[in-house]
């Protein structure tokens, strides 16, 4: 593979590229779903190819192909340089890359069980067992399960001398029970909605999730929601479970700190950010309790944003994003680091596959747990009048990341420290900084989970990327609840 | 780009490697290039060429799929072996039908008024667009931005693509297409404007005109004023209308009815929308794009799904139609027959209509006429981050973006801060007071459609954001 990459680098530099890198990627995936007692889909996929990214005449060019013959590779490298020269005709400034010491390295996701050695029969048996548990509850009208496994091997070489071989594994699993009755569709998902829990692990993740053990409870809750009262509307103290809080972090912290958005590079599609450069180290993002990091290192955990090196050869790092409530850092790349006075990239550039351009992506954007011991039950006991919301059902935020609205699958009204009743269709909305400043309690490490968001979309052409978000249940004072259902 | 002849040769080799009862191979891919600009600079510029081969095998009611982008003999053997290994361990599915042959797949030609006409959506000039041509287009857009003291961001893309399907019962279908797309955001100090268009024929795109319109929106919406949330008459430009109505079409599916996850469950044959709403699915419409066959190779038929506000029916893959005929719902769902809208098997979603065409209203109005007849309302250029809040009343939420204006006494008065909406699509399509001639439109939240601009009363804005 190194020889193939070097063919590309040689052609690119010979043709005048001042910088070039080549990524050869071999991806393998397996997806299994069931629906109402039957396998819904069963598929394996593999994809392999190479991309060449260059700077020529001070501008970017990128070309990719699945043809790994010498002629094919050299043609792609030449095309990348040609494209860069076309880019150079419409530019304001030359591309400027922060220096990065090139390394030779090997890195593999730590894992116990290669998911591809587990038989498909075993996976189907597990899925159908879950399905059977879900449908054993009267009133469940649709039961869906999913299991997903991925392996991505990448060779990254650059004209500066980087030579990195990296293999990443990820796994995902989850299920949903739907209940249709009257004029209403309700659902409950486990361990999370939209595909469940995802981490950079092997098959051991599936064993850890206690999927079968929770199926009946989830199905019963889906049916019970039909008899629950509508979540009240107004201002309430709300407690978010860790999975919903993970998505709250993703949307209202993770995206606005992407420096390419801040600099206007996503203005046509994903949007920009309220975090203009003057906000760095001046904006009170949240209350004193709020500490958020962007941490791609393995020691943070097996998140979907964990790796050894990003896709331009920068080692995984931990960047403080919010420190005791103060906004302290962005997600950056070699191209953008200088705009915030940094001399080195934060190491966040990643691509969906061999044929896509790496771009700034969230790594693991995590809210640190509270210092003092605090369980969810203790937090509920310390809440006089509030609503606990669990598991995301809908999410939306404006293109500068100010105004958001989330819906959850289930809510629980809290009165005088006790859960008094289930409520259906809970939702809340707010303005990002006002909301984070209203946080007044975070549960401690025992309640903290590193969730995976496998479906983050960004870029043109759009790329889907997995990101990680650690969170423990937290309480927000005086949140606006229920406007999703107001007047419609 | 992969040719039909090359694909047929690959299919023959795959058949030899397979011991399955039936084999189906899907081919897809092509060449895609996109020039992306921001801050008046081309900052990303990409091109890739790739194809995939996706093999489905069947053994006695068991089926599975494996996919590769490698075309050498070892890879072809491996993908067949993967597909067969997966298929053999499945449980037999009594609902799995034999693959269709060519006669079945061609369907009832009388159901499509354009069926006899081959679809030509490949334009060599579009396929031949170079990085230089795209850079020239971007330069034109940047010059407009500079003229108006704005900055611009957007894309200019071009592609040529193939979709093909072959199966062991003799079916073979092949479709080639080109597509060019331009999207432009013009940005001022506290405002922005947007335009987007695409077409199989790049000659239909006018980046200069689009840039000028986007620039005018950015200029006219400067210094946006905050007006309170509430119910307003809104005028949704076609792209905005497309992005919101697109959230209901997943439900126009036989499988969604069988699963009871559709808002049409128990409502087919009912009048859900206003008299002025008639919607077809029609891949043969001259402003549409896409292949004329579905994931099993069945001809996509032209059919009405809403007529004068009444939901007439849903679309069906072959297997879904067969199941529906034996289901408890069979007498409540209107006509049941395979319509050529299925996804590639195996899948859990069934089918959906992907070539939506709104019928022209009896008395179409221009956008200017809609504005002129509005005493107080909001003109919306674009909607953003739309998500479903409630699945049966079909309440969706989202934001306005890139050009939101107060209309007062028949005139566009000024830019306003962007709104969050929470709106039932059933209510919305019951409150349409006027429509334009339907246009080919594209957005970011839904697929391309032929859809009109709409003037809608009592649209439910629930919050205002900070810009």
How does this model look, in words?
The complex is a heterodimer of chains A (488) and B (467). Chain A is of the alpha+beta class. Chain A is built from nine helices and 24 strands. Chain A is 19% helix and 39% strand. In chain A, the strands form five sheets. In chain A, strands 1, 2, 3, 4, 5, 6, 7 and 8 form an eight-stranded mixed beta sheet that branches. Chain A has a five-stranded mixed barrel with strand order 10-17-18-20-24. The radius of gyration of chain A is 24 Å and the shape is globular. The mean pLDDT of chain A is 97. Chain B is of the alpha+beta class and 467 residues long. In chain B, the strands form four sheets. A six-stranded antiparallel beta sheet of chain B has the order 3-2-1-4-5-6. In chain B, strands 7-12-13-15-19 form a five-stranded mixed β-barrel. A four-stranded antiparallel beta sheet of chain B has the order 10-9-8-11, with no helix packed on it. In chain B, strand 2 and strand 3 form a beta hairpin. The relative contact order of chain B is 0.14. At the A-B interface, strand 2, strand 3, helix 2, helix 3 and strand 17 of A face strand 1, strand 2, strand 3, helix 2 and helix 5 of B.
Percentage beta strand of chain A: 35-45%
**Percentage of residues in helical conformation of chain B:** 10-25%
C-alpha-based Rg of chain B, rounded = 24 Å
Q: Which structural category do the helix and sheet elements of chain A fall into?
A: alpha+beta
Count up the helices of chain A. Answer: 9
Q: Radius of gyration of chain A over alpha carbons?
A: 24 Å
Largest sheet of chain B: 6 strands, antiparallel
Q: Which strands sit side by side, in order, in the main sheet of chain B?
A: 3-2-1-4-5-6
Overall mean pLDDT of chain B: 96
- Globally, the shape of chain B reads globular
Q: How many distinct folded domains of chain A?
A: 2
Number of domains of chain B: 2
């Amino acid at each position: 593979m190194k020889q193939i990459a070097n063919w590309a680098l040689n052609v690119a530099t010979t043709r005048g590229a001042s910088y070039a890198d080549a990524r050869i990627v071999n991806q393998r995936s397996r997806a299994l779903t069931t629906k109402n007692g039957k396998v819904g889909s069963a598929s394996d996929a593999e994809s392999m190819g190479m991309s060449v990214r260059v700077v020529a005449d001070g501008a970017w060019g990128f070309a990719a192909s699945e043809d790994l013959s010498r002629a094919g590779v050299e043609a792609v490298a030449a095309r990348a340089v040609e494209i860069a020269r076309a880019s150079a005709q419409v530019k304001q400034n030359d591309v400027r890359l922060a220096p990065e010491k090139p390394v030779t390295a090997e890195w593999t996701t730590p894992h116990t069980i290669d998911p591809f050695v587990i038989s498909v029969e075993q996976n189907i048996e597990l899925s159908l067992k879950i399905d059977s548990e879900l449908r054993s509850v009267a009133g469940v009208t649709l039961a869906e399960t999913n299991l997903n496994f991925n392996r991505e091997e990448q060779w990254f070489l650059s004209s500066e001398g980087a030579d990195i071989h990296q293999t990443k594994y990820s796994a995902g699993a989850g299920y949903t029970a739907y209940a249709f009755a009257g004029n209403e569709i309700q659902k409950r998902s486990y361990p999370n909605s939209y595909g469940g829990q995802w981490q950079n692990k092997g098959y051991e993740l599936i064993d850890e999730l206690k999927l079968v053990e929770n199926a009946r409870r989830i199905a019963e809750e889906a049916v019970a929601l039909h008899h629950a009262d509508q979540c009240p509307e107004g201002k309430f103290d709300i407690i978010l479970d860790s999975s919903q809080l993970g998505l709250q972090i993703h949307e209202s912290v993770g995206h606005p700190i992407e420096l390419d958005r801040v600099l206007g590079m996503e203005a046509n599609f994903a949007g920009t950010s309220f975090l203009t450069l003057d906000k760095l180290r001046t904006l009170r993002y949240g209350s004193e309790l709020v500490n958020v990091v962007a941490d791609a290192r393995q020691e943070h955990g097996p998140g979907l944003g964990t790796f050894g090196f990003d896709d331009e050869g920068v080692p995984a790092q931990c960047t403080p994003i919010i420190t005791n409530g103060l906004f302290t850092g962005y997600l950056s790349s070699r191209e953008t680091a200088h705009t915030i006075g940094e001399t080195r990239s934060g190491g966040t550039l990643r691509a969906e596959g061999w044929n896509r351009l790496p771009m700034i992506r969230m790594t693991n954007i995590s809210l640190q747990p509270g210092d003092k011991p605090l369980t969810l039950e203790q937090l509920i006991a310390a809440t006089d009048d509030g609503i606990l919301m669990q598991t995301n059902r809908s999410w939306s935020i404006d293109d500068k990341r100010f105004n958001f609205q989330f819906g959850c699958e289930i809510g629980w009204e809290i009165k005088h420290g006790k859960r008094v009743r289930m409520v259906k269709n809970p939702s809340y909305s707010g303005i990002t900084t006002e909301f984070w400043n209203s946080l007044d309690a975070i549960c401690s490490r025992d309640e903290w989970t590193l969730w995976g968001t496998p479906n983050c979309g960004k870029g043109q052409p759009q790329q889907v990327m997995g990101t990680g978000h650690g969170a423990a249940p937290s309480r927000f004072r005086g949140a606006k609840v229920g406007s999703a259902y107001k007047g419609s | 780009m992969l040719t039909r002849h090359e694909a047929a040769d690959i299919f023959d080799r795959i058949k030899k490697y397979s011991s399955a009862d039936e084999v189906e191979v899907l081919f897809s891919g092509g060449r895609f290039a996109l020039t992306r600009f921001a801050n008046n600079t081309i900052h990303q510029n990409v091109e890739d060429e790739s194809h995939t081969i996706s093999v489905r095998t069947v053994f006695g009611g068991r089926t599975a799929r494996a996919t590769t982008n490698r075309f050498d003999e070892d890879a072809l053997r491996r993908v067949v072996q993967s597909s067969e290994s997966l298929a053999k361990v499945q449980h037999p599915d009594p609902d799995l039908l034999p693959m269709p042959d060519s006669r079945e797949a061609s369907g009832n030609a009388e159901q499509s008024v354009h069926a006899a006409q081959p679809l030509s959506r490949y334009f060599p000039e579009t396929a031949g667009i170079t990085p230089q041509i795209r850079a020239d287009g971007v330069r034109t857009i940047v010059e407009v931005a500079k003229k108006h003291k704005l900055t611009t961001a957007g894309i200019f893309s071009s592609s040529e693509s193939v979709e093909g399907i072959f199966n062991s019962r003799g079916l073979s279908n092949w479709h080639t297409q080109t597509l060019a797309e331009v999207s432009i955001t013009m940005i001022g100090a506290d405002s922005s404007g947007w335009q987007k268009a695409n077409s199989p024929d790049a000659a239909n795109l006018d980046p200069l005109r689009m840039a000028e319109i986007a620039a005018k929106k950015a200029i006219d919406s400067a210094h946006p004023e905050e007006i309170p949330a509430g119910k307003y008459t809104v005028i949704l430009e076609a792209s905005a209308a497309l992005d919101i109505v697109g959230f209901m079409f997943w439900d126009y599916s036989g499988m969604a009815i069988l699963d009871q996850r559709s808002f049409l469950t128990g409502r087919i044959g009912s009048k859900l929308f206003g008299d002025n709403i008639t919607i077809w699915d029609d891949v043969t419409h001259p402003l549409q794009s896409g292949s004329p066959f579905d994931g099993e190779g069945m001809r996509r038929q032209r059919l009405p799904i809403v007529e004068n506000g009444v939901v007439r029916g849903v679309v069906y893959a072959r297997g879904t139609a067969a199941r529906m005929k034996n289901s408890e719902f069979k007498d409540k769902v209107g006509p049941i027959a395979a319509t050529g809208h299925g996804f590639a098997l195996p899948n859990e979603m069934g089918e959906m209509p992907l070539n939506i065409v709104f019928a022209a209203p009896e008395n179409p109005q221009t956008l200017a006429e809609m504005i002129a007849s509005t005493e107080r309302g909001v003109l919306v250029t674009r909607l953003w981050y739309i998500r479903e809040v409630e699945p049966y009343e079909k309440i969706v939420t989202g934001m306005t973006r890139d050009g939101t204006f107060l209309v007062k006494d028949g005139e566009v008065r000024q830019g306003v801060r962007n709104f969050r909406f929470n709106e039932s699509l059933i209510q919305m399509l019951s409150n349409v007071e006027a429509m334009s001639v339907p246009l080919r439109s594209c957005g970011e939240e839904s697929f391309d459609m032929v859809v009109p601009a709409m003037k809608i009363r009592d649209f439910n804005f629930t919050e205002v954001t900070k810009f």
